[in-house]
Amino acid sequence: MTSDWRPAPNIRRHPEVYERENEALARDGRLDVALREVADWRGRRLLDVGCGTGFWLPRYADASSVLGVEPDPDLLGAARARVAHLPHVSAELGSAEHLPCEDASFDVVHARFAYFFGAGAERGLHEVRRVLAPGGVFVAIDNAWTHGDFADLLRDAVGGNADLDPEATAAWWRAQGAERLDVDAGWQADSADELERILRIEFPAETVERFVARRRAASLSYAMALFVVRG
Ligand SMILES: C[S@@+](CC[C@H](N)C(=O)[O-])C[C@H]1O[C@@H](n2cnc3c(N)ncnc32)[C@H](O)[C@@H]1O
User: Fold this and answer.
1) In the predicted model, is pLDDT for residue 159 greater than 70?
2) d(CA 229, CA 136)
3) Does ligand 1 come within 6 angstroms of the Cβ of 94?
4) Buried b (16+ CB within 10 A) or exposed e, 209-222
5) Which residues pair with 69 in a beta bridge?
6) 12: which DSSP letter?
7) Of 203, 156, 51, which Cα lies nearest the Cα of 59?
8) Which member of 44, 45, 105, 182 has the lowest number of beta carbons within 10 Å of its beta carbon?
9) CA 61 to ligand 1 center in whole angstroms
């Protein structure tokens, strides 16, 4: 198996809170509407790269088949348990750089906040192109940084850190021939306390404290960027 993946601290250390985070995004629903428009999976073969604990896999159940690929063995175990009752949905060990899939075997490939963060992701994108069938579509979902509460949090947390440069990421995607589609979505948590718990697995404590002092609510606005590559 691959040794080139990087553990994701948010979901790995706090899988239960990450589940709430995904629920808050799912409840808002606007990201899924946009994904359906750009790459509808109904009746098609879908691959979810870096599927984590498999939160989204059952939500693709109207695809003809669904495969989640995940390099972290602990998260993979959770994903497999989640979809065990769904005969056309499964999860396998692998990474973006090493997909356990035949050439041209998927119509739709998604990567949600996984691996594809700009420069350095060339190998993974090469693999995705290999497994995309002619006419297929790949969508990488990332933070937009342009506006909204989540972008404010990102900027507050990152400061001058050159590692996370949204302009460089966008330029990298343009160089790969990707289209960009911006989506105004949000999180809708159960309560302000729950939203704060979620924010604490994503951002430093002082960033979260500044944010909740300014704006204490159960929801936040979240601008996302979809990078779309057609096979
Ligand atoms: C922030 S989590 C998102 C999980 C899932 N996509 C979701 O939205 O619930 C990032 C995921 O990417 C996985 N990952 C890390 N390196 C990877 C790689 N090289 N290829 C594919 N996935 C990777 C992590 O193990 C983790 O499951």
Assistant:
1) no
2) 9
3) no
4) ebbbeeeeeeebeb
5) 49, 92
6) H
7) 51
8) 182
9) 20
Contact 69, 105 (CB under 8 A): no
37 CB burial (10 A radius; 0-12, 13-18, 19+): exposed
How close is the Cα of 112 to the center of ligand 1, in Å? 8
Share of the chain above pLDDT 90, in %: 92
Whether domain 9-230 has CATH 3.40.50.150: yes
| 221 sits in which H/E element | strand 219-230
State in Å: Cα 57 to ligand 1 middle. 13
Ligand 1, atom nearest to 48 Cα: 6
Q: Which 8-state DSSP code applies to residue 113?
A: S
Q: Using a 6 Å cutoff on CB, does residue 41 contact ligand 1?
A: no
Q: Which residues contact 8 (CB under 8 A, 6 or more apart)?
A: 52, 72, 114
